[in-house]
Amino acid sequence: MNTKELTNLLEKVKDNRISIEEAVGNLKQLPFSDLGFAKVDHHRELRQGYPEIIYCQGKTTEHVVGIVKSMLEKGSNILGTRATEEMYEAIKAFYPVVQYHPLAKTITIKQKEQEVPSSYIVVVTGGTSDIPVSEEAAITAEILGNKVERVYDVGVAGIHRLFANIDIIRGAQVVIAVAGMEGALGSVIGGLVEKPVIAVPTSVGYGANFGGLAPLLSMLNSCSSGTAVVNIDNGFGAGYMASMINHL
């Protein structure tokens, strides 16, 4: 339940369209549902504007299904990250319109329309190996109610490719720059645009990449002002933050 839905409920009580008892029944499960193995936070959308996100990695398929069913009852849009095809098939068995995005390893269910800003977010990658993390960012931003443009494989090894797409990058409200190897893409873009840049280091790279630690440190030490950094391979975190900025 979001602020608008809560306001509508209270207006129905005020106008005697529903009883106080009915309203209390609707509100009883508002804070969270205790499933035994999880406490699903239904109040989060009311507090923060976005519903709870399901981090599927480490959970059993049965637990993910239980959380999804609880959220479906509340009419929420649903995003599950780091999800498997087995989880998707289990949800599809009782809710056929669920979507699975194999590159991003995300599950999405859209139950209600959102107000989408006229501005857009652009997701830029250094190479094609960074696309899975980039897609996690892009799909996160889309399910949270944003228009997203994708500019992939424009890394610094062929920087002319980046300049060929600079207009669409500069036109965005916020830029997500996803790169592995040495992670220079975030700094380069940060020096070319006047909008916030969210840099995402990936674990793509050879030995001294140290599983993403090298680009993480490069991005943290960027001399381009206006560039912020999320954790290694955290496309979700970048997409969520970009959505918050785009909705300001």
UniProtKB/TrEMBL annotation:
| SMART domains xrefs | AIRC
Residue ranges constituting the PurE domain according to the UniProt record: 119-248
Q: Which Pfam families match?
A: AIRC
Tell me the NCBIfam families matching this sequence: LarB (NF033503)
This chain belongs to which protein, by name? NCAIR mutase (PurE)-related protein
Organism from which the protein derives: Alkaliphilus hydrothermalis
Record lineage:
Bacteria, Bacillati, Bacillota, Clostridia, Peptostreptococcales
